[in-house]
Amino acid sequence: MDKKMMTIDLNSHVLLDKAEKDGVETMYDRKQGFKSQCGFGLQGNCCRICGMGPCRITPKTPRGICGADEHVIVGRNFARMVAGGTAAHSDHARDIAHTMALSSRDGNYKIRDEEKLIILAKEWDVETEGRDIYDIAHEVADVALMEFGKPHGVARFLKNAPEPRQKIWKDLGIEPRAIDREIATIMHSTHIGCTGDIDSLIHMSLRTALADGWVGSMIGTRFSDILFGTPTVRETEANLGVLEDNKVNIILHGHEPSLSEMIVLASEDPELVALAKEMGADGINLAGMCCTGNEVTMRHGVKTAGDFHQQELAIVTGAVEAMIVDVQCIFPALAKVADCYHTKFITTSPKAKIAGSTYMEFSEETAYADGYKIVKEAVLNFKNRDKEKVLIPELKSKATVGYSADAILGQLDRVVNSHIDPAGTLKPLADCLKSGVLRGAVGVVGCNNAKGVSNLAHVTIMKELIKNDILVVTTGCGASAAAKFGLMTKEARKLAGKGLATVCDLVDIPPVLHLGSCVDCSRILDVVGGTAKLLDMDMSDLPVAGVAPEWMSEKAVAIGSYVVASGIDTYLGVMPPVTGSSRAVEILCGELQDMVGAKFTVNENPQELAQIIIQDIEKKRVHFENLV
Ligand code: NFS
Ligand code: SF4
Q: How far is residue 47's CA from residue 44's CA, in Å, rounded to a whole number?
């Protein structure tokens, strides 16, 4: 396949040509090298959990050496994906909790949303009366850190879910206990000679996934809001056209806001701005990629350079002084690409060192000093830029971002009749859903996957949904795609159906709302849970759905699993490696419905997938017919 057929992003097309001219290899070249991927891997029925393997299931070898059949092998592989994803999100959350434990009035990290901290402290029975806000913060941080390994009880955040949902979890025995314990349990149970039952493996996957969504990700989002401020609505721009010709361009890539927030601060430091001018630049231009990009665009309007599949292409512009990364979704390939240009590829986390990069460790204890040093390195690199090698593609789109659950409430207040209804509730949203002006609300989230055409499924599905009066909320690289393709603008209302367009006008929102990074899928749980509570329903009764059209990471598998376990139907545009077990497919795409009130649906054709979602949303609306 022609490489340009592998992405619909026109900036990427321009840069793919440039990469070829510059002799730089990208993921699109490597993808072409992988013409046929291993069928066992694709189906999930290859086991290399012990040293007697790998054992691959075929008609002639229907069992591994230990006797594990295809169901056990697929189930173990699936469970380990969920554990991997939960570990990634939650370890990120743990770092943010540690950061909060370090917060102080005159230190690097301050409390920016005191109200949110007090609410959380009260939820967690932490004394707030007459106490210094930092004392409260430190105690809340300690309580959060206990959620990772506490020896007794179940996760605290579960009680935020609607009651019928909590009951389902309790009855099924899938209430997560402590985050690390759930992950360890999966690693133990999938060791050779432990669980040999697919039903049980999926059961424990759901419990671990709930620890991801309702505990780890919730901590990640709430603590980030408390420390760095709850996002508010703001304007920004997206796509590689946000890079600037005569500024020091710094790309922030990775996930944790503790680093990116310091880089944002340092890039505004007058000394460093002056140094940039001394180097001949007009200033410092920050742009984000992947989820750390989403975090800083939500809180500061930092422009979005692009998504997961554009990380190499960003460097191919020849205009990037530094690509600063921390953890997750960082191609090791960046080291090689950076070698072909003047770009410094700066790794910062002991959890994600990459051979060939410049390692400048970032520590929360010395956060600002570290951030300063890293930005200085980027600024000093401006003089090495080779103008002959620069090509910044033209396209970029405007986007309105910053829709935290709180910001959504703020927008909804515009339509509240203050004589009848209190402000600050989800009632207007619930009313629109009930009346049918909005047919439903869908979260379109997740990655880009080289199995398909970059961005195509995201954009197709989002457009189809909004055309059919379904409000779209999005996070992660799905949000970057929406921003790049202009779906987060006022003008995009033209693409919406009449009902949704009316709501967008009244509430003054675009038809696709940016809720943040992938851990911020917890904001979606908050909004859906809150709406269900308001209507006295369960989450599974609402006309809502989750979609991951181009998912690829283990984190996405964990998200999909907790979304389903929360009663929200989940639609995937890429088949997970489970088809090797008919039983796994039967449970995930069928029987879960009876257990948790939702299931997975997979279709690799985005048009078809969109139509299935729309039909299913319409079916869900029957629950409203019983309401007065
Ligand atoms: Ni989510 Fe964020 Fe993007 Fe996928 Fe990676 S950045 S945590 S995993 S690729 S959406
Ligand atoms: Fe083979 Fe069983 Fe070992 Fe897996 S655990 S590699 S199926 S012997």
A: 8
Q: Whose CA is nearest to atom 4 of ligand 2?
A: 47
Please state, in angstroms and rounded to a whole number, the distance separating the CA atoms of residues 25 and 338.
11
Cα of 213 vs centre of ligand 2, distance in Å, is: 31
pTM for the structure as a whole = 0.97
Which of 89, 57, 222 minimizes the C-alpha distance to 143? 222
Domain regions of the chain by residue span: 70-228, 240-389, 400-625
How many A from CA of 49 to the centre of ligand 2? 6
Residues whose beta carbon lies within 6 Å of some atom of ligand 1: 255, 290-291, 308, 329, 446-447, 476-477, 517-518, 553, 555-556
**Nearest Cα to Cα of residue 597 among 30, 162, 145:** 162
Q: Give ipTM to 2 decimals.
A: 0.94
Give 564-612 pLDDT, tens digit per residue.
999 999 999 999 999 999 999 999 999 999 999 999 999 999 999 999 9
CA of 554 to the centre of ligand 2 (A): 22
CATH architecture of 400-625: 3-Layer(aba) Sandwich (3.40)
pLDDT digits (tens, 9 = 90+) for 323-336: 999 999 999 999 99
Within 10 angstroms of residue 206's Cβ, the number of other Cβ atoms is 24
Determine contact, residues 51/65, Cβ cutoff 8 Å. Answer: no
3-state class of 51 per DSSP?
Answer: coil
Atom of ligand 1 nearest to the CA of 519: 7
Identify the CATH number of the domain defined by range 70-228: 1.20.1270.30
CATH architecture for residues 240-389: 3-Layer(aba) Sandwich (3.40)
pLDDT at 457: 98
Q: How far is the CA of 209 from the centre of ligand 2 (A)?
A: 25
Output the residue whose Cα is nearest ligand 1's atom 4. 447
